[in-house]
Design a protein that fits this description.
It is a single chain. This protein is mainly α. It has 2 domains: 76 residues, no CATH class; 47 residues. The protein has 5 helices and no strands. Helix 1 crosses helix 2, helix 2 packs antiparallel against helix 3 and helix 2 crosses helix 4. The longest helix has 46 residues. The termini are far apart.
Length: 145
């Protein structure tokens, strides 16, 4: 029974390469996904195994000891009991993505507009100050020594 569950779950994983998520061409493969049933089956087999057999189980399944540690913590917390095997649904619709993109674009445009207005205000004040200085320089009488 346990071997059948592990065999079925092994073929149901996303990554075709059980040993590594790196492919021969150097590109990174898909992230592997394990079902709750598979995790519980591996944990049961791992916990029942003798110390010398535990490494063989990890190698056969293409797992790391950190997987077992994380899965054991989740099992003890009761998290594995409530996991479903259905894939996650899409986060946002195309319309929501487009709305978020447009909102970010509008916010960037508002910030740019605020900067431009501030720069124009500074330029206007600098122009007025220079005009004032120019007028006062023209009206002053030259000093005679």
């Amino acid at each position: 029974m346990r071997a059948a569950v592990l065999s079925d779950a092994r073929t149901a994983r996303s990554s075709p390469d059980a040993q590594s998520d790196r492919r021969q061409d150097g590109s990174q493969g898909e992230r592997r996904v394990f079902t709750a049933e598979y995790k519980l089956a591996v944990l049961a087999e791992y916990d029942a195994a003798e110390p010398g057999e535990k490494g063989a189980i990890l190698r056969r399944e293409g797992l790391y000891s950190s997987h077992v540690v994380d899965w054991r913590r989740a099992r003890d917390a009761g998290a594995l009991a409530g996991l479903s095997t259905s894939p996650r649904t899409a986060g946002r619709t195309a319309e929501q993505v487009d709305n978020a993109r447009l909102k970010a674009r509008a916010e960037r445009a508002e910030r740019e507009l605020a900067k431009t207005r501030a720069a124009l205000e500074i330029m206007g004040k600098a122009h007025a100050l220079l005009e004032l200085l120019s007028e006062s320089a023209d009206t002053e009488t030259p000093s005679t020594r």
